[in-house]
Design goal:
heterodimer; A: mainly alpha; 2 strands; 6% strand; B: mainly alpha; 59% helix; disordered N terminus
Chain lengths: 124, 626
């Protein structure tokens, strides 16, 4: 896998992190992802924790998350950096208006697997 | 055989005798020498020097891997600031070490050291030529290699260290000097050194092919060539086709690094800064690199297989099983070598359908490889095996070739490769099938042809001890490595302590390191034997292994021009061992069928009529007058 070149990869995990923890009797067990292609000095330390959970847990977790853009947009500093003519469009992607929120999340779930194909959604 | 008019002009006597030109001075005789045997020894000594350095590097990084954070203060006199104040190995230098280990072992030891030594030494001697087609180009080939070696050696001492992006030097890491210490001057020198190395390799390969095609002696048809020569020729052809592609890849990388082009770079951010490069693709580099990189593993392996064929037949006292199948399988492997490169790139994001095609082509290599493995085994079957050190190493090579090949079938599978890519499973696989197997070929060749090179015998007992220690050592290192590979240990990691999944394998990693040190130390038995025998070894008889090939018809101490008097003519293939009816268990190639009526097969009696015709040819003696 190469930098600046997104690659997609699907697989179906058949044991969640919790199940695996129970099976191994190790409450601290975690699935780990390691950087594969040598990328410089810190290559050996590029560890990613992967949590496998059932859909309900994931959905519940998602509900708690605040979209990144919404938090940033709250800072007036950032708004001022967006060119005038694009500001309205940017606001479009800021789903912090209560009424919009539910719809956004649903949309998000639907399109997540193909993030790279849909340019508009790159912002998430 | 075709009549060759284009003989190399030699300033020699005007008749066919060779009691030689004026004595050459020291420089012309040992340094800038055009004699293929001296050039072979130059390659061998340089190769051995690099092998010691490359293996020593592997021991240093194995220490860090087996015992993370080990106190290496005792290496401070050698490594200086690369040992940090706390006594540990610098992570940047760790990457430099694995990169240099790979580059040195693949290119300088197993390409130049192996092909350079044995192609140069054996081609003229076994095809019956006075020297290479062009002695001058041959000399140039070695000295290009020397300059390339020198540059690589100098790069090790740079303040920013040598190249450190892995021996495959993938961009963008290798293309951006600001990305890593090892991508600065070290990378520049790596690229220049490799460019010169490629020129050296091409000069050598062109010479090998030309010599084999044009300078075979009378009667030496292609089907009477020893399998060593077939292997060297096919190896040279592989090199001629694939090395220029690496040169182009290296040149484009130099352009990207120094002239602002974007062949391999596109839309890169580094340290928060956007670079201007647009439109390139790092995948392009991988395609170019592996178009050489894959044939390269066969450039490394095939000469070793050729050497093994010859030594196994000689020491099993049996004709090689399936001579033509051996040639055909060499050709098949060489052909397939060019259409499997993308199996190194299964997980780069290339089309999975393309992956399936490359997987299919890759797995086909198992067929000619199996032909070779079974032919070795059937040659050994019920032979009167003589366990010389050379023979032991050849049999060891067959073992490694099989056990390393089996894991190749696993890795060739594009689905399994998702898990195994760039793990220690790959490291174990190619170290066994390419590294150790080719190194065994190198050892086998040295033990077998040492009497011809230096006129003395190496100590056989020491050779056997060296074999058993090395053989056990190689398996002790690389067999456990498969397991940590399956467990998911990635390559080129300074340490694994940051991950939980690696915890239960700490002992295994420690074990591998101890085995590596053990094996490294065992090589000093060989070194002692090698240098001691050069001066104090038993003086070699004319044909110590009772072998059929032409090099054993030369004097014990071979002079310039190889044969005193006429070059012998060839009447038969090189594998007439234990022929029914013959008084001896071997009949050299230069014995005509008319002298072996008691052992001739019916169809061989027909060859007697051709003998006069063969003897009347003498086109290929480079030293003879025209």
């Amino acid at each position: 896998m190469l930098c600046e070149m997104p690659t997609k990869f699907w697989f179906t995990p058949d044991k969640s992190t919790e199940q695996m923890r129970a099976e191994l009797g190790n409450p601290n067990f975690d699935y780990e992802i390691a950087c594969t292609e040598v990328c410089g000095q810190g290559h050996f330390a590029m560890r990613l924790r992967l949590i496998v959970a059932d859909k309900a847990t994931v959905d519940a977790w998602k509900q708690q998350q605040k979209p990144l853009l919404s938090t940033i947009l709250e800072a007036a500093k950032f708004i001022s950096k967006i060119p005038e003519k694009l500001r309205a469009k940017a606001m479009d992607y800021a789903p912090y208006v209560e009424t919009k929120k539910k719809k956004r999340v649903q949309q998000l779930q639907r399109v997540l697997p193909c993030v790279n194909k849909n340019k508009n959604l790159k912002l998430y | 055989m075709s009549a060759i008019e284009t003989n190399v002009e030699h300033d020699v006597h005007a008749h066919g005798e060779h009691e030689h030109h004026e004595e050459l001075n020291f420089w012309r005789k040992y340094i800038f020498c055009e004699d293929h045997k001296v050039i072979a020894k130059q390659y061998m000594i340089t190769g051995i020097f690099w092998a010691i350095l490359g293996l020593a590097m592997s021991v240093v990084f194995r220490l860090q891997l087996g015992f993370p954070g080990i106190d290496l203060t005792w290496l401070k006199p050698v490594l200086g600031k690369w040992i940090t104040d706390t006594g540990t190995l610098d992570p940047n230098f760790y990457l430099a070490l694995v990169t240099m280990h790979g580059t040195i072992m693949v290119f300088f030891v197993l390409t130049a050291g192996l092909s350079g030594t044995f192609s140069n030494f054996l081609i003229p001697l076994q095809v019956g030529a006075r020297d290479m087609a062009s002695g001058f180009l041959n000399m140039l080939s070695f000295w290009f290699f020397f300059v390339s070696s020198l540059l690589m050696f100098v790069s090790i001492f740079l303040e920013t260290g040598p190249a450190a992006g892995g021996w495959v030097i993938y961009p963008p890491l290798s293309a951006l000097p600001q990305a890593h210490m090892g991508s600065q001057m070290g990378m520049t020198l790596w690229l220049i050194s490799m460019a010169i190395f490629i020129m050296s390799s091409l000069l050598g390969s062109l010479n090998y092919v030309t010599t084999i095609i044009n300078l075979r002696t009378r009667g030496m048809t292609f089907t009477r060539l020893p399998l060593t020569i077939w292997a060297f020729m096919i190896t040279a052809v592989l090199g001629i086709i694939s090395f220029p592609v690496l040169l182009s890849a290296a040149l484009l990388l130099i352009f990207d690094r120094h002239f602002g082009t974007s062949f391999y770079l596109s839309e890169i951010y580094i340290n928060g800064e956007a670079l201007p490069n647009v439109g390139g693709s790092p995948i392009l580099f991988q395609h170019l690199f592996w178009f050489l990189g894959h044939p390269e593993v066969y450039i490394v392996l095939l000469p070793a297989l050729g050497i093994t064929s010859e030594i196994i037949a000689t020491n099993a006292r049996k004709p090689i099983f399936g001579y033509r199948a051996m040639i055909a399988s060499l050709m098949a492997i060489a052909f397939l070598a060019f259409i499997v490169w993308a199996h190194h790139m299964f997980v780069t994001g290339m089309n999975p359908f393309l992956g399936s095609i490359f997987m299919f082509l890759t797995l086909i290599i198992a067929v000619p490889s199996a032909v070779k493995a079974f032919n070795y085994i059937t040659t050994l079957w019920r032979g009167n095996i003589v366990f010389t050190p050379g023979m032991l190493f050849s049999i060891g090579l067959v073992s490694l070739f099989v056990s390393g090949g089996v894991t190749g079938i696993i890795l060739g599978n594009s689905a399994l490769d998702i898990q195994l890519h760039d793990t220690y499973f790959v490291v174990a696989h190619f170290h066994i099938v390419m590294g150790a197997a080719s190194a065994f070929g190198f050892f086998a060749g040295i033990y077998h042809w040492y009497p011809k090179m230096f006129g003395r015998m190496m100590n056989s007992t020491m050779g056997q001890i060296h074999f058993w220690l090395t053989f056990a050592g190689v398996y002790l290192i690389f067999l456990p490595m498969h397991y940590i590979g399956i467990a998911g240990f990635p390559r080129r990691y300074y340490q694994f302590t940051g991950f939980d999944f690696t915890k239960s394998f700490t002992d295994l990693n420690m074990f591998i390191t101890v085995a590596a040190i053990f094996t490294f130390v065992a090589q000093f038995i060989f070194l002692w034997n090698f240098f001691y025998s050069m001066f104090k070894g038993k003086v070699a008889p004319l044909n110590p292994w009772r072998s059929n090939t032409l090099e054993w018809t030369t004097p014990v101490n071979v002079g310039h021009g190889n044969w005193v008097g006429e070059i012998p003519a060839v009447y038969r293939w090189p594998y007439d061992y234990s022929k029914p009816g013959a008084s001896e268990d071997f009949i050299p190639q230069n014995v005509p069928h008319s002298q072996t009526l008691e052992s001739n097969f019916p169809h061989e009696n027909e060859f007697i009529a051709q003998e006069k015709e063969i003897e009347s040819q003498n086109y290929n003696d480079q030293f003879a007058a025209h």
